[in-house]
Fold Aldehyde-activating protein.
Amino acid sequence: MPAHALRGGCHCGAIRVELELPREPAAYTPRACDCSFCRKHGAAYFSDPAGRLHLEVRDQTALGRYRQGNALAEFLFCKCCGVLVAVIYAEDARRYATVNSRVIDGDPGFPDATTVSPQTLAPDDKVARWKAVWFGGVTLAGDGTGQAK
Ligand SMILES: [Zn+2]
């Protein structure tokens, strides 16, 4: 089955995403998180543990990181244009992430988002869920940590 390649990023281009999905975008129902932070952004996330995700920070000074709730995961947003791009969780040098479906270029054809409430999960359950449904082995370039990939 051919992979479906998607690109996207923040509005000004400082943070870009490139991803490959094993299924067509119509097969992914974005998840609109009902926490107070995601609601303010209108964010709705999608991911696939069988897919691939690469995050590229083209302007390191524009990379904003925000932790809220129980602070386990990190929201990546652009300090220049204000767009919330992805949520990332790192454990044992492996990165997991989910992408805000609103940042994908063009109209990939995602179904309408469904509301989810991960804030009701206990921290351990939350992490287990991220590992099960988010992109795994996420690569990140240009964030200034010295780890190119
Ligand atoms: Zn931007």
Notes: The radius of gyration is 14 Å. Residues 10-12, 14, 62, 78, 80-81, 83 surround zinc ion (CB under 6 Å).
